[in-house]
Structure formats: structure tokens, C-alpha cells
Specification:
mainly alpha, 45 helices, 759 residues
């Protein structure tokens, strides 16, 4: 049966339309528009990753399609892929040189990369084509500010404001430039004007609040920052600024509260829900940070940064095996993830396996030669293998790539100081001055070098340079005060310490100098009064309570010292000196259990703190719990096998309680190598030699030790027993009698009497 012609015609029409559609779908001009429209829909929803894919597809179909290239660059900026954004925006400008918005965007990207001269050139090109371009004047103002040309910068911002006096953004930008130019009052007026024009302007509110923060105007700061938070509950910046306010005021509970609010308010924004954990991390509260990140990992198992931060915390907590499992899980997922490889190397370094860490770090640098962190850790690995020349080379490369990496500076300086290499220290100082000409740090190191050469004029000149470089920084004045103190020019030293505290009421070094001055004069009451006056100005500083405790201890007021130290530790659980002194004060009052509890709480925050493990062992040893003391020393040695204090104490316990004498001798030798000037390690090594029947060696070492410490009963006792074994009755009798004279009722008095009776 034949179909009706009408049906055939319809069928043919449908086929034709389908074929035309198929042809149209392959037309690049049609496809580019399709991809562009799709990209815009994603972009408008904030799905920048998906939008970027669609814009890239549009560009693939037409490389000269400027709207898609421009939007692709915008996506890269939103995704913080600034290098890709710069390259893509450069292509837009090459295709459309008169596209002033693209020129502006490119200029601002150059500004963000601190390429101020290039940003200035872009701004000038824009203004040549449009002299009234407000954003062009602002770009030029910011570039001039970056080039340290404050007058030109302020002039350009004034022009921008004159062209459009009602723009909030212009006054905010003007205020920032005025802050950099040290014009605080003018900056405050600019920020206030911006807020008056738009009370909901988040940048203006934050800028005003942060200015008050810098000036320690706490109450005034809180108002605009709270207003900023009310304006943008889903933006992490107001939470961060308020957290800074409460941290500076010494209110850690309120810091935690505001950051917990951030996590609750922004459950889908990593910058929001990670804030509390990161705060704990950066302030050294490792136990809280670990607990927070444990929760975050459960809530956000796909957040790679959460996984990485948790792995880093596990490493810091000494939980290397758990960290290793997590790192391998990340590497199974991500292949050659550089952070995970770096964490693997850190674990090897913690185990003292620097040789094994080297190829891991080299594999990172093969793919990413500019990875500053990997260079730093590679330096540590070379240091562990004894190759200090290569270690220093890696640290210098780290600094070349990242001049703000203070850890590398400290490693170089520490290495130079340890070697007594003042030439290297001088070189490091010069490099720091070059990288940070406005910082006093390099000049202070130069002063150290000159002091080692007994060059009084050189020390003076270097410190004066530190003050000239940073006249508003307390550091130079504090160093000059210490120098005057060493010269015996005490009134000048006091005046300089006071000057430093005027500039920085939080300067722990300056207040330490003043406290030391009064304590040296045996005036603890005056020291306490001066510290209390500073606490009234800056009561959140943990160090101040530590210094007050030192004065109270000199006054023999242990109860008051305990209160001060409790406050110091509450303000900063990471203040190790306060933690240690609090434990010692408690132990001195017979409160050993509480002392150990203080140390154990601190170890929860920093489980790899070897000193605290040793202190726990010493308290246990002092009350006869030698088995627990032994466990504490062994924990320290498990983390660092050559830690001298733990090695020496453990050796002494083993020798006194029937331990393996070969192991004890090895431990005593380790302690002696690490603390060559310590009479305690000399005595322990001699006692180990005695137990190995090397009596002559023991006697020689103890004779040298007693010359340095002639009034120690234990050393005379050990030397007396060594002479007994050497059958030198006269010398044995001399030292055993000296033992009884120095400590007639001591722990070794009875044994000394028995040995004398046998003689």
C-alpha cells in the first residue's frame, strides 16, 4: 500500500530539518555561541569551574572569540588561578587593544603579582586613551603606592575621587594608601566617608575596623567589624577580623566562639568551616586542632585540604603511622601530590632518616623546581646526613623563591651560630637586609657579628642602623638598651626599655630587660610593680605574667608565683617557659602530682616536646618512681635517640638499678657528646666506666669534674670508690671523707662510711 504524498512530504521535511540541525551543530560559529551561553549560565550561578570548561570549548571553536576569552579569564580569577587568568587576559588585550576593561583587569593582575612598574604602564596606557577613566587613576595610584611613591599615589586617588565623589570604593582605596603613607587620621576620615556613603560596604567596614585594630582601639574596632558581619554572614572575612580583635584583646574563648559561628554559617565554604581548626593549628593548640580536624574529616571526607592538614597535624602529634596511612591514601588518589610527598619526607626526617627523605624531596623539585617548602626540607635532610654545604644551598634557594620564609633564615643563622661561623652569619645578615631593608632583624645580626669581633663601634653602628631602618619598631631600642646594660650605663638602658614599651606595649623583650634590671638590684617589689603597670596596659601577654612570677620567686612568694604562672599558661598554653616554671614551682611546694599534670597537659598539645618528657622523668625520679622515670626518658629517646638529657638520666637509672651496663655506657657517651661542658654527664659517664671496670678512666674524668664543681658530694663519692678499686687508699679516703663532710646524711653517706671502714 502506498503512503499518501502528504506523509512522504512531511517525512522528507523532518529528515531535512534533522540533517540541517546536524550540519548546524558542527558549525563552529553556532557551537561557540552555544558554549558561551552555557558558560554564562554556569557563571551566573557561581559554578566557575563548569563555566570555564564551556568558555574554553567556545574558544576552541573560535580562538578569536573575545567575549569567551574574557569570561574564561574572569573564571580563572574567581578560581584564584591567577597565572592562567593573566595569560588569558593578555590574549584578550592582544586581540582587542582598545578593550579598556580588559586592560584594567590585566593591570590589576600585575598589581596582585607585585609587578608594579608593569601595572603602572598599563594604567598610563588606559589614561592616554581615556583621561577620565576612574579605575585607571585608581590602578595608577595603587601602582605608585607599590613603588613607594606616596605623593604620586595620593595625587592619583584625589583625581579619582574628584571625578566621582560618590564612589565608596574610591574612599576605601584612598584610606588604604593613606595607611601605607602613615597618615592614620586621614585614613580614618576616608574610611568613615566610605561607610557613610554605603553603610553596607564590606571592604570599607573591614578597612575601618582593621585600622582601629592596628591602633589598639578595641572598642571602636568592634563596632564596624560587627556591622560587617551583619552585612555578610556568609563571608569569612568579618569572622576572621573579629577573631583577630578578640585574640589581640586576650580573649581566646571569644575567638573560638566567633570561628565556631563561621563554621556553622558557612558549611559549604572551605574558607569558613576550616577557620577554627586553622586557628588552633597556627596558635600551637595541637590537641584542639587535631580534634577539630578529626570532625572536619568526617564531615568533609572529599576536601583534600582537610585531609592534608589533618595529616600534618598527625605528624606534629608524633602519630607517624596514622599520618603515613592517610598520606598514602592521598597519593593513591592524587598520584604525585606535592604536599603529600612533602609530608612523607617530613615523617622520614622525624625518624632521622634524612638519607631516605632526599629522593622524595628531589622528586617534588624535579616537577616543581620553585617549591620553596621542598627546598627547605631538603636542606634539613642534607643537614641530617651531615652535608651542611648542600643544606645551606637549599635554604638559600628557599629564600630566593620565598623571601618571607623566616624558618630558612633561622636555619641559616642557627647553623652559622652553631659552627661559630661569623662570616656566614654576616653573609646571612646581609641577605636579610637585602630582602627586608625596613626590618631591624638583619642589622641586629650584624651587631652580633661585630660583638664577636670585639668591635664596640661596629655594634653601636649596627644597632643604630636597626633603629633608623624601623624607627617605630621596638626591637632596635630594646637591643640598644641591652647593649647599654652590658656597658653598665643602666639609666640609659632603663630609658630605652621604656621607649620600646611606648612603641610596643606588648614587647616582651623590653619588659624582660626592665624586670631583669630590678631583679639584678634585688628589688623584686619594684619589678612586680613595673610588670603590673604593663599588664594594666596589655593584660593579654602571657610573657608578662611569667616575668612577674620570676620576681615573685625571688621574693620567695611561691603561692603568688603559682597564680601568675597559671595565668600565663591559660593565656598561652604554648608558653613553654611558663609551663616548665609552673611545674617546678608546684614541685617545690610538694605538689608533684599537679606538676606532672601540667607537663602532661602541655604534652597533649606538643607530644614531641623532649624537654617535657625529661621533666616528667625527673619529678618521678625525685620521688622514687624510677620505673616511671625510665619510661619518660625512653619516650624522649624514641623520638630523638641522641637527646643528651634523656640519655644521661636513663643511663644513671640503669646503673643505679641493675640495668645493662653496656647500654648504660652507650647512653652515657651519647649524653657526654651532647653536653660536653656538663659535670652531670661527666659523672654519669665516669660511673658507667666504673661499672665496666675502667677505673682509671673513671678517676681521670672525675678529677677533672671536681676541679670545676668541688663541692658536690656525689662526685667525691664516685671518685672515692674508683680509688678504692685502684687500691689507692689515701686518695680513696680523702674523697670518701669529703663526701661525708659535704652531705653527712645524704643518700650515699652510709655506703661511704662502709667503704672507709673497709679501708
Amino acid at each position: 500500500m502506498r503512503r499518501p504524498r502528504t506523509l512522504e512530504w512531511i517525512a522528507l521535511l523532518l529528515l531535512t530539518v534533522a540533517l540541517l540541525g546536524a550540519c548546524a551543530s558542527k558549525d563552529p560559529q553556532v557551537l561557540k555561541k552555544k558554549y558561551y551561553d552555557s558558560g554564562m549560565r554556569y557563571y551566573d550561578k557561581g559554578s566557575y569551574q563548569e563555566a570555564a570548561i564551556q568558555f574554553a570549548n567556545a574558544v576552541q571553536n573560535d580562538p578569536g572569540y573575545v567575549p569567551a576569552r574574557y569570561q574564561l579569564a574572569q573564571c580563572y580569577m574567581k578560581l584564584k588561578m591567577f597565572r592562567a587568568a593573566y595569560e588569558e587576559m593578555g590574549r584578550v588585550v592582544a586581540l582587542q587593544p582598545d578593550n579598556l576593561q580588559a586592560q584594567l583587569d590585566l593591570g590589576n593582575l600585575l598589581l596582585g603579582a607585585r609587578q608594579y612598574e608593569e601595572a603602572k604602564d598599563r594604567a598610563q596606557q588606559i589614561l592616554e586613551k581615556d583621561s577620565k577613566n576612574i579605575e585607571g587613576h585608581i590602578l595608577l595610584a595603587n601602582a605608585e603606592a607599590g613603588l613607594q611613591n606616596p605623593d604620586e599615589s595620593l595625587r592619583e586617588m584625589t583625581t579619582a575621587i574628584q571625578l566621582a565623589p560618590g564612589r565608596t570604593e574610591s574612599y576605601t582605596n584612598m584610606g588604604r594608601i593613606q595607611v601605607d603613607a602613615k597618615q592614620s587620621r586621614e585614613a580614618e576620615e576616608s574610611f568613615q566617608k566610605a561607610v557613610a556613603l554605603d553603610p553596607k560596604s564590606l571592604p570599607a567596614l573591614l578597612a575601618l575596623g582593621n585600622l582601629y585594630l592596628q591602633e589598639r582601639r578595641w572598642e571602636e574596632a568592634e563596632k564596624p567589624l560587627r556591622q560587617a558581619l551583619d552585612t555578610a554572614r556568609n563571608d569569612p572575612r568579618p569572622y576572621s577580623a573579629l577573631a583577630d580583635l578578640y585574640r589581640l584583646k586576650g580573649e581566646p574563648a571569644r575567638v573560638e566562639q566567633i570561628l565556631a559561628e563561621a563554621r556553622k554559617a558557612m558549611p559549604k565554604d572551605p574558607a569558613g568551616y576550616r577557620m577554627l581548626g586553622d586557628y588552633y593549628f597556627t596558635t600551637g593548640q595541637l590537641a584542639k586542632a587535631t580534634a577539630e580536624y578529626t570532625d572536619l574529616l568526617k564531615a568533609y571526607p572529599k576536601d583534600l585540604r582537610v585531609k592534608k592538614n589533618y595529616a600534618q597535624l598527625l605528624i606534629y602529634n608524633g602519630r607517624a603511622e596514622e599520618a603515613s596511612r592517610l598520606i598514602e591514601e592521598i597519593l593513591a588518589q592524587e598520584g604525585k601530590d606535592e604536599d603529600a610527598l612533602d609530608y612523607r619526607a617530613q615523617i622520614l626526617l622525624l625518624k632521622g632518616q634524612g638519607r631516605e627523605a632526599i629522593p622524595v624531596l628531589q622528586s617534588i623539585l624535579k616537577n616543581d623546581p620553585d617549591n620553596a617548602t621542598a627546598h627547605f626540607h631538603l636542606g634539613q635532610a642534607y643537614q641530617q646526613t651531615g652535608n651542611l654545604e648542600l643544606a645551606e644551598s637549599e635554604w638559600r634557594e628557599d629564600l630566593r623563591l620565598s623571601p618571607s620564609m623566616t624558618a630558612a633564615y633561622e636555619a641559616l643563622v642557627s647553623n652559622a651560630a652553631r659552627k661559630g661561623d661569623y662570616g656566614l652569619l654576616e653573609k646571612s645578615a646581609a641577605e636579610i637586609i637585602k630582602a627586608y631593608p625596613a626590618s631591624p632583624r638583619g642589622y641586629i645580626l650584624q651587631a652580633m657579628v661585630q660583638k664577636s669581633r670585639n668591635n664596640t663601634a661596629g655594634v653601636e653602628a649596627a644597632i643604630q642602623q636597626a633603629i633608623a631602618a624601623a624607627p617605630r619598631d621596638a626591637t632596635g631600642y630594646t637591643q640598644l638598651a641591652n647593649w647599654r646594660f652590658s656597658q653598665g650605663r643602666l639609666p640609659e638602658a632603663v630609658t630605652l626599655f621604656e621607649k620600646a614599651l611606648q612603641l610596643d606595649p606588648d614587647s616582651g623583650d623590653a619588659l624582660l630587660g626592665l624586670t631583669g634590671f630590678y631583679l639584678k638590684k634585688n628589688q623584686p617589689e619594684q619589678a612586680i610593680a613595673r610588670v603590673n603597670a604593663q599588664i594594666a596596659l596589655s593584660g593579654h601577654n602571657s610573657l608578662f605574667y611569667l616575668y612577674r612570677a620570676a620576681a615573685e620567686i625571688q621574693k620567695k612568694d611561691m603561692a603568688a608565683a603559682q597564680i601568675s604562672l597559671d595565668r600565663a599558661v591559660a593565656l598561652d598554653p604554648g608558653n613553654l617557659r611558663a609551663v616548665i616554671l609552673l611545674g617546678q614551682v608546684l614541685a617545690s611546694q610538694g605538689l608533684q602530682d599537679r606538676a606532672i599534670s601540667v607537663y602532661q597537659q602541655s604534652l597533649q598539645q606538643d607530644p614531641r616536646n623532649l624537654k617535657l618528657h625529661v621533666l616528667v622523668g625527673q619529678i618521678e625520679e625525685s620521688r622514687g618512681n624510677w620505673q616511671k622515670a625510665q619510661e619518660a626518658y625512653q619516650k624522649a629517646l624514641a623520638m630523638q635517640s641522641d637527646y643528651p638529657e634523656a640519655a644521661g638520666n636513663l643511663a644513671a637509672i640503669m646503673l643505679d638499678h641493675g640495668g645493662d651496663t653496656d647500654v648504660a655506657l652507650s647512653l652515657a657517651q651519647t649524653a657526654r657528646r651532647g653536653l660536653q661542658d656538663s659535670p652531670e654527664t661527666a659523672d654519669t659517664l665516669a660511673w658507667a666506666q666504673y661499672h665496666k671496670e675502667a677505673y682509671a678512666l673513671a678517676a681521670d674524668l672525675l678529677e677533672e669534674t671536681i676541679k670545676k664543681v668541688p663541692e658536690n658530694a656525689l662526685y667525691h663519692f664516685h671518685l672515692g670508690l674508683a680509688y678504692v678499686k685502684l687500691q689507692n687508699a689515701a686518695r680513696a679516703k680523702e674523697h670518701l671523707q669529703k663526701t661525708l663532710k659535704l652531705d653527712p646524711n645524704g643518700p650515699h653517706a652510709q655506703e661511704a662510711r662502709q667503704a672507709l671502714a673497709q679501708l
